[in-house]
Amino acid sequence: MSDMQTDKKAKIELDGKVFELPIIEGMEGEKAIDIRSLRAQTGYITLDSGYMNTGSCRSGITFLDGERGILQYRGYAIEELAEHCTFVEVAYLLVHGNLPTPAQLRNFSEMLGRFAMIHEDMVHFFDRFPPYASPMSILSSMVNSLCNFYPEMTENPLDNIDAMAARLLSKVRTIAAFSYKKTMGHPVVYPRHDLSYCANFLNMMFDSPVAPYEINDKVVAALNKLLILHGDHEQNCSTSTVRLVGSARVNLYASISAGISALWGPLHGGANQAVMEMLETIHAEGGGYRKFIEKAKDPNDPFRLVGFGHRVYKTHDPRSRILKQASEDVLASMNVVDDPLLEIAKELEEVALRDDYFIERNLYPNVDFYSGIIYRAMGIPANMFTVMFALGRLPGWIAHWMEMWNDPDTRIGRPRQIYVGPQLKPFVPMAERTGNE
Ligand code: CMC
Known about the structure:
Largest sheet: 3 strands, antiparallel
Structural class: mainly alpha
Distance between the termini: 54 Å
Radius of gyration: 24 Å
Number of helices: 19
Oligomer: single chain
Low-confidence stretches: none
Bound molecules: carboxymethyl coenzyme *A
Helix content: 40-55%
Mean pLDDT: 92
Strand order of the largest sheet: 1-2-3
């Protein structure tokens, strides 16, 4: 991982003195002021809630340019990866830094097949969750529990990266499918060595003792594309969580379990489920989406048009463009002729993109806007959408955790604060307290 140290310095004037801070440039021309010595030099810290303007690390995994709508994994354009690769190839790319050769891919795929089972004792865990349990809560708990069953992977995490990544990618897929079966009250379907990664997942989800599942190549291809598009997105909330938790030197499973919890939130990965619920509500109310646009624009209404807006993309989200096309292709290939929710989604997008409120704030459809339509056509229920996001994001989380672990600059993540609470006051003994202290 390299960046360009420049000779340039930022000058900052505080309390009548001028201080110099180094300037760092990234490979694509991004510029940063290195403020690590600021407090030691000046006594000041920086305040940046939501980390809107704070770089937390140097990273060589994903490049994202929100102004130009560019997304690249390890130097490859997302459009090309989504067009030509399987999810397993892209997972390998994210974790290892290079696209696999045929031999590397065979080896990695063989490991994915070999590690697909989870310890049978863990299968019983599923029985203890109530039937209405959220699959995200089950996933997060199960991934955390993995460290007890596979402790060898927590001791020397970087000794065998291949096996570590393959184990997690394979087992999380099995856990995701089992959690769905359990919420349905159906028997789990075990993984099959003869199936590809995505076909195996779909089979575990939909095969049943009474109705064997027929694998549809178009559905498998669409799932590959969806997972690839979710593979990584640099320092988003869940990835930053994985890195922050991991910076305390806790194991990979615990770090990723924390990332899954962050992803669950409706402002982050949980938005894909929320989009579908919003579209269903609009449909149930007769398709009158304008009311929802007005609610989203009302400063006194907390409602937001879910699936719109992004912290970083300010022109378009390249992933949502690919998904819009893919949603039409998948629906056509599955003979879904008129999906009313797809029609509402398209109309909503058109209206929002012409509305000054959305234009002024650069609010465009994000990755969550169209993904749910495709998942729904595949038969995946809305409460599993965020689990699907987690499955796709997993290689990114693993790659970031490893990069963080290896980086000599990594210190335990520990932000500072500006204290705004009460100043020191005398302690009040119990007998003298009025409740108004
Ligand atoms: N609908 C209506 N208004 C919005 C929306 C929206 N979806 N998103 C942002 N705004 C307004 C917001 O009210 C604010 O207006 P004003 O300047 O008048 O106060 C302005 O746009 C800036 O919003 P912000 O909340 O300061 O922006 P942010 O960068 O902190 O938040 C976001 C980004 C994605 C959380 C936000 O756009 C949002 O809540 N979107 C809806 C939820 C969603 O789709 N999340 C998925 C994000 S993409 C995938 C992922 O990360 O997992």
